[in-house]
Amino acid sequence: MKIREVIQHIHKERIEQEIPVKPNDREFIGHYQRAVTTIHENLTGDQLKEAEDKLELWNKEGLPEDVRLK
């Protein structure tokens, strides 16, 4: 797992708010990737640390059930 994947899970709502098109639009994937990058670049130090801590934990112990089910 990588940090972007953790950010996608813990900041899902913020990412969705960044996307100007609906999920069924052709352009959605490109907008989604840019939104993840934007959120990643704008995380505070504490938010980035939280994501890094979750990444380390999830890589060590496996994904929590609610993340695996998505």
Description of the molecule:
The protein has five helices and no strands. By secondary structure, the chain is mostly helical. Helix 1 crosses helix 4 and helix 2 packs across helix 3. The two termini are 15 Å apart. The longest helix is centred in the last third of the chain and has 17 residues. The mean pLDDT is 93. It has one domain.
Features:
globular, mainly alpha, about 70 residues
Task: Summarize the model shown.
Helices cover 71% and strands 0% of the residues. The chain is an all-alpha fold and 70 residues long. Helix 2 packs across helix 3.
What is the topology?
Layout: H1 3-10, H2 12-18, H3 28-41, H4 45-61, H5 65-68
Helix pairs in contact: 1-4, 2-3
N- to C-terminal distance: 15 Å
Radius of gyration: 13 Å
So how many helices? 5
Total of domains: 1
Helix/strand structural class: mainly alpha
Per the principal axes of the C-alpha atoms, what is the gross shape? globular
Strand portion, in percent?
under 5%
Assembly status: single chain
Report the biggest beta sheet as strand number plus sense, adding barrel if it closes. none
**Low-confidence blocks of residues:** none
The secondary-structure element order is HHHHH
Number of strands: 0
